[in-house]
Amino acid sequence: MKRNNVYTHPDAVSADTPIIADRISKSYNKGTVPALSDVSLEVKKGELFGLIGPDGAGKTTLFRILTTLLLADSGQARVSGYDVVQNFKQIRRTVGYMPGKFSLYQDLTVQENLTFFATLFGTSVAAHYELIKDIYEQIKPFSDRRAGKLSGGMKQKLALCCALIHKPEVLFLDEPTTGVDVVSRREFWEMLQQLKQQGITILVSTPYMEEAVRCDRIALIQNGRILQVDTPARIAGAFPVKLYAAKAASIYGLLKDLRAWNQVESCYAFGEWLHVTLRQDTGNGTALIREYAETRAHKQVIIQCIAPTIEDRFIQLATSNALPNGSGH
Amino acid sequence: MDPVINHQPPSPATAETAIECRELTKKFGDFIAVDRISFRVQRCEIFGFLGANGAGKTTAMRMLCGLSYPSSGHATVAGFDVYRQQEKIKQHIGYMSQKFSLYDDLTPLENIKFFGGVYGVAEKEIRERSHDLVRSLGLDREANKLVGGLPLGWKQKLAFAVALFHRPRIVFLDEPTGGVDPVTRRQFWDMIYEAAEKGVTIFVTTHYMDESEYCNRVTIMVDGKIEALDTPANLKHRFACDNMDEVFYRLARTARRSDS
Questions:
Q1: Which of A245, A257, B41, B172 is placed for a possible disulfide with B19 were both Cys, Cβ 3.0 to 4.6 Å?
Q2: B183/B163 Cα distance (integer angstroms)
Q3: A33 and A150, same domain (yes or no)
């Protein structure tokens, strides 16, 4: 390959689409373990894009391919206009990557880690300090503490600072909120909103479905396949049938009874409610379910028709055999 | 803020006590990791043990599992004293966590045999029950493959079954469903309900607030203390919140500690 080809500038098409994955497939162990199958997605400039799926869905594999740390078996990908194979060096300079596993030097202090990463990228902590200021000030009191001695929430903030230190155009965050408590998770998403306002394109993965609503657009992923890509509202809205919430004094008893009823298509626990769909819904589902529950001697029965959540849609897509194309039935 | 604690167990007349703590405390030097916590868990109860990172949950659980001595206070688990009868406690509880539960380099059957053996289940009984167990989990085809190759959800379901294999009175579950897909997460909770119905007491931690709603009662720990203890419905009512996520946030946002 000619050298000048390696240094091609980003093309115009990619200028407003910093992340393009085109039919990416990847398997491990000589093809015996499929990790990604035909994955395509595009992230627009300035978007906060969520990759939502459980462990083992292929999220980390996709991140590693996009950050040039792993080669795909087939398919193509471009980040900031650069090809992930041909122009991997440019990509490494322009992206920030926070892996799921804590990846900083445990034996270096907070300050030393930050300086180290700034130096690697040929910049200084001061150069783009504005970008990390709000986050870094929260851990500044501990700047002489070794990274290994920080709490989970503080490690996460330091890792984010290190990923931002060279003012990347695109930020990759692999499960930044996994195992973190509700309070720290909320804080983290607020930090992401602020970074988004500074024009940084963000691809973030999470196994927590309720975090999806904080993204501009999301991709649901399971078993290496993208189930659907759209705005959170449209994904929840694509739920193809009526959804009912049911509860009674004995919630586990109601769950077992509803699952045993041949009219019920699906019945899952959602917090204090059960979410129920019917096989043939003629519009009187609320009355039907109540009637059935009462014949089973359930007390304090409440049935409502409700708006589906992203998790409802995920479960419905993940359990239906039909290949999803976004429109449901 | 005054702790919101309802010490009224769900049905005091019939239930027996599985776990009881009074003023249980653990100090590391000057640091009070667990600060005079008191609660009572009834037999067959599903008891949710929530808290911010670093609130002291793991330290409290380690004392209740007989893995560390309290600094002061009292606790009994399955009727055994946490100071004097640690080994008895270990025999009568099951434990599983997200991080370590099974040996990846053993098959499901070997894991069952190993843990069954460690807990003193007779070899004959292990032989008889392990195949049924594998079948009931739908793992027949994987029975002789290494656990490391199984999807996370299956591993966790197997780990739960293994934790119950020696028929413990109480099972401690430390974030058992972390990262597990939404469908398998719910199947896991079906297993929890089933175990509780059969008489096992469940002591469970989780970061999924929807799961805290599946518990009979929930405690929320903040900075080593129990700030709330009640049914999810009562907690939501008392804090005028729609969901447990909001209740948790209200209580934990003022936390000064985080984990290390």
A1: B41
A2: 21
A3: yes
Domain that holds residue B206: 4-102+172-252
Residues A119 and A248 in one domain: no
> Which CATH number is B201's domain given?
3.40.50.300
Same domain, A220 and A260: no
Q: Do B249 and A57 touch (CB under 8 A)?
A: no
B222 and B19 Cβ atoms separated by less than 8 Å: no
For chain A, say whether B258 makes contact (Cβ under 8 Å). yes
CB contact under 8 A, A184 and B178: no
Which chain A residues are within 8 Å of B209, Cβ to Cβ? 182, 271
Kindly give the pairing relationship between strand A74-79 and strand A19-28: antiparallel
From residue A241, alpha-carbon distances to A132, A266, A283 in Å are 45, 11, 10
Distances (CA, A) of A107 to A103, A140, A144, B157: 12, 17, 11, 37
Residues A161 and A124 in one domain: yes
- Both A49 and A98 in a single domain? yes
Contact state of A209 with B182 under an 8 Å Cβ cutoff: yes
Q: ipTM value, please give it.
A: 0.82
pLDDT in tens, chain A (329 residues): 444 444 445 555 667 999 999 999 999 988 888 999 999 999 999 999 999 999 889 999 999 999 999 999 999 999 999 999 999 999 999 999 999 888 899 999 999 999 999 999 999 999 999 999 999 998 999 999 999 998 878 888 999 999 999 999 999 999 998 878 888 889 899 999 999 999 999 999 998 998 999 999 999 999 999 999 999 999 999 999 999 999 999 999 999 999 999 999 999 999 889 999 999 988 899 999 999 999 999 999 999 999 999 999 999 999 885 444 433 33
Specify if A321 maps to a domain. no
Residues B50-108 pLDDT 10s: 998 888 998 999 999 999 999 999 999 999 999 999 999 999 999 998 776 799 999 99
CB contact under 8 A, A269 and B52: no
Query: Which residues of B fall within a CB distance of 8 Å from A54?
Result: 152-153, 179-182, 184
- C-alpha closest to that of A298 among A253, A243, A266: A253
Structurally, how many domains does chain B consist of? Answer: 1
Same domain? A249 vs A200 = no
The enclosing domain of A206 has a CATH number of: 3.40.50.300
- Of the candidates B39, B93, B12, the one whose C-alpha atom is nearest the C-alpha of residue B219 is B39
CB contacts of B249 in chain A (<8 Å) are 182-183, 186
- Do A50 and A149 lie in a common domain? yes
DSSP state of A148: G
Contact A56 B151 (CB under 8 A): yes
Provide, as residue numbers in chain B, all residues whose Cβ is less than 8 Å from the Cβ of A56: 151-152
Looking at the structure, do residues A264 and A173 belong to the same domain, yes or no?
Answer: no
Q: How many domains does chain A have?
A: 2
Phi-psi region of A224 (alpha: psi -120 to 50; beta: other; left: phi over 0): left
The range of the structural domain enclosing residue A179 comes to 3-236
**Measured between alpha carbons, how far is A40 from A113 in angstroms, rounded to an integer?**
35
In a mutational test of the A interface, the residue from B214, B254, B258 whose CB has the highest number of chain A CBs within 10 Å is B258
